[in-house]
Amino acid sequence: MTLLFFLLLLASTLSPSLARGSFQSLVPSEEFKNCSNASCARHLLEDHEPQVQASFDLAQGYMTNDDLERAIKEFAQRCSNISRIYSIGKSVNGVPLWVIEISDKPGQEESEAAFKYIGNVHGDEPVGRELLIFLANWLCDNHLKDPLATLIVENVHLHLLPSMNPDGFSLRKRGNANNIDLNRDFPDQFTSINDNEDLRQPETRAIMNWLRDIRFTASATLHGGALVANYPWDGSDDKSTKYNGCPDDDAFQFMASIYSHSHYNMSSSKEFLGGITNGAAWYPLYGGMQDWNYIHAGCFELTLEISDNKWPNAAELPIIWRYNKMSMLNLVASLVKTGVHGRIYSSGEGRPLPGFITVSGINYTVKAGKPFGDYHRFLAPRDRYQVVASMPGFKSKNISIWLDDGPVTLDFVLDPEISVKGSVLQNVYDCNCNSKNKLEFAQFLWGTHLEVYFVFIVILGFLCFLFQRRVKGKFSTRSVGAKRSVVV
Ligand SMILES: [Zn+2]
């Protein structure tokens, strides 16, 4: 039995790298599929706290927070040519939230998609933080050797936050140091109770600010306690447990399937068809991170449950890494291997435009970047789409495409709108494209009928004119009166 197990492991390690445009899946072993021992037990729901025994620390063999910080800094030194590290903030107890960025041009803006992985959202789900260090090191070791590693490093900006909740980890509990579940702390479309950003936890605020800085195309958070790839929506309007797909349901199902089918045995789940699930169909939750990412940050996020056991024996971590390795790599590579990508330009000087991309029939907008006008639109393949590019002050353009298994590159050249409104909007953009306030102002104007403002301004001007005449009239009458009195 043991021999069989190691042979399977060896087979999964030696499997060839992906060809462009296809995703490799792993065949599950009967041994793993039929597992019924304690390590397969699920510890899923939020109220569950592990029974910490005084004589045995669950985290034995896992990296402490200090070990993790050291591993991140050592990685940055060892792989300085393709990475940089930075912190997005601090936890309640002041632990830095370190991020590793992996790219051939780390820290530089390029017309490339960005992806993020976040581990250890729940303090008592530590497998993800270990796997992200495995992933970083594997990419570093295999860049320019393995085609998939090279593809990712050279075409994607990959950001890894191994631990979002270092305090929860050191306390061996789900919530942070204030005992708040961070995956219930985001603004939610179905509730209004948590809309005040100042009341949020520092870890949550750090994520929200991070997404204002970086335009992520897609992401995934790593959890433990089950084995499934979960996609939005996480909640439902009537709070019931039911399938509640978001506008991009097809794309999300496709994205979740990339993970589950590339995984060692996730897709053969007996509980979840194909190893994927809609969040609300499984169990609805509110204030979750994935819905917020999609709604507010333009980022397609999955919630990945990567290990049935929240605290597997640390010796099993390299095995769990191998089970998840192709999934993690394929999900990042999917940003390059699928979907529609391109840039938006103005027809005049050919300058990049930070416009908008929509797809007919899908109520969702993807924003293009400011410096390059680039966009990256995740879509399920094997379908026809009508892609529309728009920009305030320019005429919209739409192009029909057939999206096969590979990616489609689609650039748009937009003509300026010849109208008062168009000129005003173009001037607002021309003035300073780096000013966020000006862009927001232009978008505000764009969404409003500018002509109404002009009529209003004309009426206001006329009223001013009348008022001035009246004042002048009174003044001149008084003056004349004074002169007369002098004469008299
Ligand atoms: Zn979790």
Q: Give the distance, in angstroms, between the N- and C-terminal Cα atoms.
A: 126 Å
The total strand number stands at: 16
Please give the order of strands in the largest beta sheet.
1-2-4-3-5-8-6-7
Return the average pLDDT rounded to an integer.
Answer: 84
Q: What's the CATH H-level homologous superfamily of the largest domain?
A: Zn peptidases
* Total of helices: 14
Q: Within the CATH hierarchy, at the fold level, what is the topology of the largest domain?
A: Aminopeptidase
Structural class: alpha/beta
Please provide the ordered H/E string of secondary-structure elements. Answer: HHHEEEHHEHHEEHEHHEHEEEEEEEEHHH
Bound molecules: zinc ion
Shape: globular
Taken together, the total number of domains comes to: 2
CATH architecture of the largest domain, by name, is 3-Layer(aba) Sandwich
Q: What is the highest CATH level, the class of the largest domain?
A: Alpha Beta
Strand-residue proportion: 15-25%
Described by strand count, sense and barrel closure, the largest sheet is: 8 strands, mixed
Low-confidence runs: 1-22, 24-49, 475-488
Radius of gyration: 28 Å
